[in-house]
Amino acid sequence: MAKTVAHVLWEMLESAGVKRVYGVVGDALNPTLNALRDFPAIEFIHVRNEEAGTFAANAESFVTGGPVAVCGTSGPGATHLINGLYDALHEGTPTIAIAGDVATSEIGSGMTEEVDTTQAYAACTLWRDRVEVPSQAPAAFRTAIDKALVDRGPVMLSIPGDVASAAYPKHDVPTQPIRMRRPVVCPAPADLTELAGHINAAEKVAIFGGDGCSDAADEVKELARRINAPVGYSWRGKAFLEEDNPNGVGMSGLLGWGGAYDAMHKADLLLMLGTDWPFDDFYPKDVKTVQVDLESGHLGRHAPHLDAGFVGDVGDTVRALLPLIQQKSDSTFLDNTLKKTAKAKKRLNHYVEHGPKITPIRPEYLISTISDLADDDAAFTVDTGTAYIWSARYLEMTSQRSLFGSASWASMANAMPNSMGIQLAQPDRQVVAFCGDGGVSMLMGELITIAERQLPVKLFVLNNGMLDFVNIEFQEAGLRPFGTTLWNPNFAKVAEAMGLTGMRVEDPATMPDQVGAALATPGPVLIDVVVEQHALAVPPHVSPAMGRRFGYSQMRQVLHGDVKDVADNVDKNLGLI
How many CA atoms lie within 13 A of 554 on its CB side? Predict the structure, then answer.
């Protein structure tokens, strides 16, 4: 019996290493998924929302490095994938999206649920194709798989049901995807000499690294040691550059801590390694800046005053660079920045040290406690919002821990589905999600997916009754907050009704024991933690303009009768003043 186009698709995806496909079935997609029955090595994960399936797939791909598939039927089923595909694009995960499509006889007719994927997905995928006749399938499938694997990003295949069930027109199936070792990408010798010249000529060098340092942490630390450079990092660089780094000085930006901001602004040379950090206001404007990045389009895209840019993989570049670097003997700049970092960390620990006596529970105390009690190789997923800030400051990384979130796309509601994908891929690993109350509410249906499969994820909900980060954004902009409050249920009871273990945590004195019990409980657990609504995340540097805008916001709130909110802001954050 001849193979169908859908059979060949799954055969090629299986050969490429796809082990799971996340999605929701439906009409135009049914012939494609019907063929999946013959491929038991690929597990179908029936999620409640296609967007959540894509978030799960992205996180799975992040921890495994391999490709993952997602699917949705024609029209709205497929368009639910779009937000997650944007996330895959920004996080660089090889996510292969499969969309059902209207019958070929209906294409262009305005048929219900018709979407031209070549247009609709142009901005959120690296490559896309609409397979309208069976003879297109071999090239389309091969290109999609290879593009996702080699260029590390999302692709989209749209397949009408009649094409999926049609006979495959070829005899041979090109099942083997491109197999390639990571290429060595390094600046030319003359450029390396120039880069070394910049570093050797500077008395004070500060390094700022991102996720491009993921395979080069040891090399970056050795470079920093040789030139006595403080090392700051972005949130995505934290997982690789924080642990066992005697030169580490924390982070910059709104979620920053430590001496990173100070180091970047007092250096003679800022060396950016594998980061496209987008927060222009926190960059120095009068410090020579050089950048190394694998993506040429990242060079100078956000750094406002880039003096020199070099295309190269961070590990390959630094390994080639080290023999050209002169040892620096003066460590005064590094020592001063480390002292500032230690002082800042002591200040940050105020609400950790005093946490057992403060009600409502301080989020700083909660995240620090989880960090202390979680496994040394735990995987953490983090929702966009203040959970992101607290993870940056209070979650301690080890070489075995991993950290994933919607770091560059900054979507809400990612942490819970992210945790699903990691747990499915690594069932014996402890997976912990830091969920905002707004985030967990947005995709609450995935609690059913977790319960159905009894995925042993631990979901900590930071329940402060507010879109907290947005509330801070209003105040930082000098505005009176609007529309940021949330009416929340008891999330623990909701979880219990859906088949998870639910816990409600309100007492700071017993919180550590409850966290320990939650982490030790078999199966899925949702821990609803009532945390302080007014906990402020003050950045390491507050500009005069930022201070004025925050003051204007407080005045506006007072003038509109919100005196208690302003008083609580002061009273609940005295330890930061």
Answer: 12
